[in-house]
Amino acid sequence: MAGPQDHEYAPSDDKQYHHRTIETRSISAVVGDVWFAISAGYHPMTDMVVYFNGKQAPIEIPSIDPDTRKVWPVPDGCESISWEYYCKGPSSSAVIYGKR
C-alpha cells in the first residue's frame, strides 16, 4: 500500500518540507509481523522523522539516498504512520508488508 501525499507541492530546485501519512487499520485483521518501508525516489531525503499514531518514534534518519529503502517493525496497536522529511520533490514512497 503506498502512502498518499498530505498536500500538494510546487516544483522547486530547493529542498521542501514534506509530511505524509498512511493508515494501517486495514491490516489489523491478519496475524504475524508487520514491517514498514520508506523508499527515497529521485532525490535524497534528509532530516526524516517517523511517527506511529501521531507520536514521534525513536526513529530519526539524517539522510536516505535516492533508490534506497529503510525498513522498521510496526508496533502493535499502530493505526497510522507518518513521516516528515526535506527533499527537492515529494519523492518518497511507503509500503507496509508482512502479517499481523
Mean pLDDT: 75
The low-confidence runs, each spanning 5 or more residues with pLDDT under 50, are 1-7
**Strand residue content:** over 45%
Strand count, sense and closure of the main sheet?
A: 4 strands, antiparallel
| Helix-strand string | EEEEEEE
Distance from first to last alpha carbon: 15 Å
What structural class should be given to the helix and strand makeup?
A: mainly beta
* Helical segment count: 0
Indicate the radius of gyration in whole angstroms. Answer: 13 Å
State the strand order across the main sheet.
1-6-3-4
The outline comes out as globular
Number of strands: 7
Describe this entry's structure for a reader.
By secondary structure, the protein is an all-beta fold. Helices cover 0% and strands 53% of the residues. It has no helices and 7 strands. The protein has strands spanning 16-23, 34-40, 45-52, 55-64, 69-73, 80-87, 92-98. The strands form 2 sheets. A 4-stranded antiparallel β-sheet has the order 1-6-3-4, with no helix packed on it. The chain starts with 15 loop residues before the first strand and ends with a strand. The model is unreliable at 1-7 (pLDDT under 50).
Task: Give keywords.
100 residues, mainly beta, four-stranded antiparallel β-sheet, three-stranded antiparallel β-sheet, 53% strand, globular, disordered N terminus
Short recap of the structure:
The protein contains no helices and seven strands. With 100 residues, the protein is mainly beta.
